[in-house]
């Protein structure tokens, strides 16, 4: 007999169980902090196009069997994971990115809207009336360069999503091994950037204005793996005032610029979603605090705060409204740095955060940590239940200042 928490709507349980059962991986806002007063999810009656949450992978199959949801997709971080029953034709991704500590977590994407599935040219899709979630992977061969493979993948992705009626990329995740390996004078990440740039530039001349948020991380093994979220309506391109836009980086970083926005803001009837790109210890366009994981982590917190505050100022979002969801993923290059990074972020991330720590390589070999996230502004929640806006935020430091740990919070 299944425990009581498995009864009812699966999406409700994914969010609640994901927090209740993975204490090792959920940031609780610091030692002695109280549980968040913000409700953990919207009422079921309030339809939403997408929602993501973490759930123990071992329990996922049972939950899917008991209450099949409107499933958009599942992301696992274990290349050896067997195929899940109950997933049907939904996109599923298995990445070779070892998780630090705790029971393995699955990242589960759901919707309250009716979902249909489609597969064409090697891409698996889950679609509703608002968004499409898709996944694909392409195997590398000795005679195929990564830039050529990436170009083919993005051309296919862009053409197919447009044909299906979802022409606006909102968020893309890119994973491939040996990201910092240099061959014939170019790092593999630079080749990836060249292929992506070419495909995007061929679609429209002003593509810089509509770039999605994105992540590119080096895996332990595997093919080029891409999963993405696209919409019928466009999101809003958001940049960070502390950082040079990636597509304006000097050519010293790549012959073709990294083609992504720092975040995508996507309005919805139930509140906005801020889809935050992989964020590292980069100020301006320069990697800061070489060889210092503590300072790099704190610098990332400064960058995240600057991005969130800039978004609020530009789009009239009141401080303290990001309580519909707070989902973060932390990539750490060296396992020895995990305890330090975890302890810092345990005090810096919002109290209602779900977080997962993974071992992966960043786009520059000197970068040791990268953080991505999803924040949701839930307009269905009464103001009296919102996360308190009184928690301290860091002011935006000058680019030349070194980040300090004290009183740095993301709220």
Write out the strand line-up for the largest beta sheet, numbering strands in chain order: 5-6-7-12-8-11
What structural category arises from helix and sheet content?
Answer: alpha+beta
Number of strands: 20
Q: Helicity, in percent?
A: 10-25%
Under the CATH scheme, the architecture is 2-Layer Sandwich
C-alpha Rg, in Å?
A: 20 Å
Stretches where pLDDT falls below 50 for ≥5 residues? 1-45, 381-408
CATH topology: 60s Ribosomal Protein L30, Chain: A
Distance between the termini: 40 Å
SSE topology sketch:
Blueprint: H1 10-20, E1 51-56, H2 57-66, E2 70-76, E3 92-94, E4 105-111, E5 116-120, E6 123-127, E7 131-138, H3 146-163, E8 168-177, E9 182-183, E10 186-187, H4 188-203, E11 213-219, E12 224-231, E13 236-238, E14 263-266, E15 273-279, E16 282-283, E17 286-287, H5 293-315, E18 325-332, H6 338-348, E19 354-359, E20 369-376
Parallel strand pairs: 2-3, 8-11, 18-19
Antiparallel strand pairs: 1-4, 2-4, 5-6, 6-7, 7-12, 8-12, 9-10, 13-14, 14-15, 15-20, 16-17, 18-20
Helix pairs in contact: 3-4, 5-6
Write a structural description.
This protein has 411 residues and is α+β, with helices and mostly antiparallel strands. It has helices at 10-20, 57-66, 146-163, 188-203, 293-315, 338-348; strands at 51-56, 70-76, 92-94, 105-111, 116-120, 123-127, 131-138, 168-177, 182-183, 186-187, 213-219, 224-231, 236-238, 263-266, 273-279, 282-283, 286-287, 325-332, 354-359, 369-376. The protein has one domain (4-385): 60s Ribosomal Protein L30, Chain: A (2-Layer Sandwich). The protein contains six helices and 20 strands. Helix 3 (146-163) packs parallel to helix 4 (188-203) and helix 5 packs parallel to helix 6 (338-348). The longest helix is centred in the C-terminal third of the chain and has 23 residues, at 293-315. The model is unreliable at 1-45 and 381-408 (pLDDT under 50).
């Amino acid at each position: 007999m299944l425990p009581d928490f498995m009864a009812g709507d699966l999406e409700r349980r994914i969010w609640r169980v994901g927090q209740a059962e993975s204490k090792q991986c959920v940031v609780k806002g610091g030692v002695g902090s109280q549980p968040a007063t913000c409700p953990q999810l919207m009422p079921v009656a309030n339809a939403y196009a997408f929602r993501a949450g973490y759930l123990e992978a071992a329990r996922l199959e049972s939950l899917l069997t008991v209450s099949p949801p409107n499933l958009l997709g599942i992301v696992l971080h274990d290349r050896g994971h067997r195929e899940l029953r109950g997933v049907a034709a939904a996109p599923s991704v298995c990445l070779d990115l070892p998780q630090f500590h705790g029971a393995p977590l699955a990242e589960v994407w759901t919707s309250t809207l009716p979902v249909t599935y489609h597969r064409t040219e090697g891409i698996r899709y889950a679609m509703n009336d608002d968004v499409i979630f898709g996944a694909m992977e392409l195997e590398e061969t000795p005679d195929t360069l990564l830039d050529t493979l990436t170009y083919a993948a993005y051309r296919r992705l862009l053409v197919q999503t447009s044909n299906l009626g979802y022409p606006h990329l909102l968020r893309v995740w890119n994973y491939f091994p040996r990201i910092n390996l240099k061959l014939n004078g170019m790092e593999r990440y630079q080749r990836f950037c060249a292929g992506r740039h070419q495909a995007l530039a061929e679609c429209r001349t002003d593509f810089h204005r509509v770039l999605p948020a994105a992540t590119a991380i080096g895996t332990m093994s595997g093919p080029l793996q891409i999963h993405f979220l696209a919409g019928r309506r466009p999101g809003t391109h958001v940049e960070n005032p502390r950082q040079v836009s990636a597509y304006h980086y000097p050519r010293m970083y790549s012959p073709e610029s990294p083609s992504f926005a720092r975040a995508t803001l996507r309005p919805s009837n139930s509140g906005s979603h801020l889809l935050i790109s992989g964020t590292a210890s980069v100020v301006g366009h320069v990697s800061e605090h070489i060889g210092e994981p503590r300072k790099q982590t704190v610098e990332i917190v400064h960058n995240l705060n600057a991005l969130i505050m800039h978004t609020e100022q530009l789009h009239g979002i009141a401080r303290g409204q990001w309580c519909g969801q707070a989902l973060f993923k932390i990539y750490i290059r060296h396992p020895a740095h995990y305890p330090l990074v975890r302890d810092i972020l345990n005090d810096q991330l919002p109290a209602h955060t779900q977080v997962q720590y993974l071992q992966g390589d960043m786009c520059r070999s000197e970068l040791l940590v990268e953080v991505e996230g999803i924040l949701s502004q839930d307009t269905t929640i009464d103001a009296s239940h919102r996360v308190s806006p009184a928690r301290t935020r860091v002011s935006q430091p000058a680019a030349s200042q070194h980040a300090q740990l004290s009183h740095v919070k993301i709220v």
